[in-house]
């Protein structure tokens, strides 16, 4: 058996007085345990790594399944106890880089197999390729498959998946290069007990038995799908309706499908029924707004905790069902938000004000010019007024190589558009502004002629300016106006946002 990468824990060590005096060996505590007690110790040992196996967001660290290798080499007694309880201990064999798979399969018990080649840095040798194909032949034992390698190296392994894998629970296929080829899962590939499926740059036909039979699926990720894999939202929802255990859904297209094509499909496939995904907690989407809206119009996710959306650049952004979708979800309520402008996109993130491992809500739109970004933000925010109206803390930042907007960009960004961006945030009490946006914001905060002075940000109490030197009295007029109407705003100049 190959060596184990996991160190032997301090559950007991065989101690000797010296290499030449084995008769002085002192039994440690674990030596005097009976077999049942020792088995319980072994059972508890791998529990601290179980969480990493089920993490829906991290790269799988399946090599830790070799935890028992080293323990089985300690002595014959330990080996006998471990191998006598493979189901209770969850024993598995790991086929990975450099593993002598032929010898392992020939001289090891018939334990479940993990095929783990998910290191984008390591090169795949010819022996590794042969080992993958050899392990895939034993379909009745393959428990997990993880392949991260150039697309050309994936052709043969994918072709070898042309039958049923009765115990397969997790499948990850992530090409590290596209090589201008289309990867298509075999139509005969079936895995009725599949729980996690993550494909990137791979075509999975919606009528594939892999989806129709995988009723226990917990995580489904179809990312960077090529144009050949495009399907209507109604077709996707029809498959999702048979996955009541689904907790994480990721759908992303490699390129933007023309909005008119999606809108035409939606016109001919009206919403008939609303399906509920009772256990869905995370949803990630990348595509055009019309497709997103067609998807959200058909599903309800009452327990959703994370919603991340990335839209391709379009002339207009239409998401009338986004707000209705969020209203059907109990957890998508926010206390703070951050709007960041970058060179190639803008991102709105929102959370409930606590320490979150991942932002509960995120909307990103890819476009290069800041005036386009502000226009797109105004359109999206206009569709989310009720959701954004409860935000009490708002941060605005601009991140670019040169740090601030050019004079030309300042002139192109309309004051009206900026006001439309800020208008939904009617409950904001603290507004943080980065140096790159000071000119735009100081000008846009002033009320229009004849407009009530509290029309914009009526609840504002603090204006925080950061990442720059002195604001040169840019906000003096605004602060004076608020002071005059009896709603003073405290101005804070700091080096870092709070």
Question: Could you give the topology of this structure?
Answer:
Elements: H1 35-44, H2 50-53, H3 67-72, H4 76-83, H5 86-89, E1 93-95, H6 101-107, E2 113-117, H7 126-137, E3 142-149, H8 151-159, E4 170-175, E5 183-184, E6 196-200, E7 202-203, H9 209-213, E8 219-225, H10 233-240, E9 248-253, H11 259-268, E10 275-276, E11 282-287, H12 289-296, E12 299-300, E13 306-311, H13 320-327, E14 336-341, E15 345-351, E16 361-366, H14 370-382, H15 385-388, E17 393-398, H16 407-412, H17 415-422, E18 430-434, H18 438-444, E19 462-466, H19 476-484, E20 490-493
Parallel strand pairs: 1-2, 2-3, 3-4, 4-6, 5-7, 6-8, 8-9, 9-11, 10-12, 11-13, 13-16, 14-17, 17-18, 18-19, 19-20
Antiparallel strand pairs: 14-15, 15-16
Describe this structure in words.
This protein is an alpha/beta fold and 498 residues long. It has a domain at 1-91. It has helices at residues 35-44, 50-53, 67-72, 76-83, 86-89, 101-107, 126-137, 151-159, 209-213, 233-240, 259-268, 289-296, 320-327, 370-382, 385-388, 407-412, 415-422, 438-444, 476-484; strands at 93-95, 113-117, 142-149, 170-175, 183-184, 196-200, 202-203, 219-225, 248-253, 275-276, 282-287, 299-300, 306-311, 336-341, 345-351, 361-366, 393-398, 430-434, 462-466, 490-493. It is elongated and about 85 Å long.
